[in-house]
TrEMBL record:
It is found in: Cell membrane. Keywords: Cell membrane, Membrane, Transmembrane, Transmembrane helix, Transport. It comes from Cytobacillus mangrovibacter. Its main location: membrane. It comes from the Bacteria. This is EamA family transporter RarD. The gene is rarD.
Length: 316
């Protein structure tokens, strides 16, 4: 019997029909929850974005550690990885960069929702796949197909239209896309098991979260503890941070990357609709044109990916 290696990601499960269905369910749940989280952050709009982020990190870490305690096999692998820190120092560096990128992404999104910039946040979520493709092409040297290149150019045109309409660069959208893109890129270099990696990610930024909470407490600006309802919501923020990540991991083990690509647009679409129907954001004609270009680029990208997959099937 071979020892379980914490540096080897879990294998993709056999693609039987029941497993595929479970993959669809897990992935759908993850992206649906990510989409509707905007409502959750809005319910905390009286709390500063930085405090929400701190609680999201702290309680997320506590939730992951609880899962690790229950899962003895992964708990053992986690401590094994820590003991071999010098050997795996490059992995720890990648995880640290990933933790900074995703924490920045969370802070920007929460701030955008609570300060009425949800439409720009939605745009950022839409262009994230385009940024990921650009990073993949330039850094990972991924081959870009003609259809993918066309979709990138159309998306760039959409961002240009929005920039012209704003009269300034849509930094919220671009920042969200870049931080998410960097997180996805660094994840390509991380070979640690998903749950263990998530535990280390949150553990690395938890000291910063605790420092933020201490400073807020000393300046009498911390909301946690002042209201039972808000306190429960802040604790729940950590759980709602970890759950979709775990669901996504389970879904990814049962689905191809191309199939996952179709699901990733659930979140920005929900955010976009919430911006119109719930948050009452008005959309100018230029913004409609901008989103129109983004949707067209996604259609071109999806069609290109589907055709590429079909050709590979025909060859085999």
């Amino acid at each position: 019997m071979t020892a379980w290696n914490p540096l080897v990601k879990e294998k993709v499960l056999i693609s039987s029909h029941p497993e595929k269905i479970m993959g669809y369910v897990y992935t759908s749940l993850a992206y649906l929850l990510w989409g509707f989280l905007a409502l959750y952050w809005n319910s905390l709009n009286t709390v500063s974005s930085i405090e929400i982020l701190a609680h999201r990190i702290l309680w997320g870490f506590i939730f992951v550690v609880t899962i690790m305690i229950i899962h003895s096999k992964k708990r053992l692998a986690f401590f094994t990885l820590l003991k071999e820190f010098k050997v795996n120092i490059k992995q720890f560096f990648y995880i640290f960069i990933a933790s900074l990128a995703i924490s920045s992404n969370w802070l920007i999104f929460i701030w955008a929702v609570n300060f009425g910039h949800i439409m720009e946040a939605s745009l950022g979520l839409y262009i994230t796949p385009i940024v990921s493709m650009i990073l993949g092409a330039f850094i990972l040297k991924d081959k870009i197909q003609t259809g993918t290149l066309i979709s990138m150019l159309i998306a760039f045109l959409g961002v240009t239209v929005l920039t012209y309409d704003y009269g300034k660069i849509p930094w919220i959208a671009i920042s969200l896309a870049i931080t998410s893109g960097i997180y996805g890129l660094v994840k390509k270099y991380i070979k640690v098991d998903a749950l263990i990696g998530m535990c280390i990610e949150t553990m690395m930024v938890t000291p910063f979260a605790l420092l933020i909470l201490v400073l807020l407490q000393r300046s009498n600006k911390m909301f946690f503890g002042s209201d039972i309802h808000l306190s429960i919501l802040l604790i729940g923020a950590g759980i709602l941070t970890v759950l979709p990540l775990l669901w996504f991991t389970e879904g990814a083990k049962r689905m191809t990357l191309t199939t996952i690509g179709f699901f990733q647009y659930i979140t920005p679409t929900i955010t976009f609709l919430l911006g119109i129907c719930f948050f009452g954001n008005s959309i100018t004609l230029s913004q409609w044109f901008s989103f129109g270009f983004i949707w067209l680029s996604l259609a071109v990208f999806s069609l290109s990916s589907w055709k590429g997959k079909t050709k590979r099937w025909e060859k085999t």
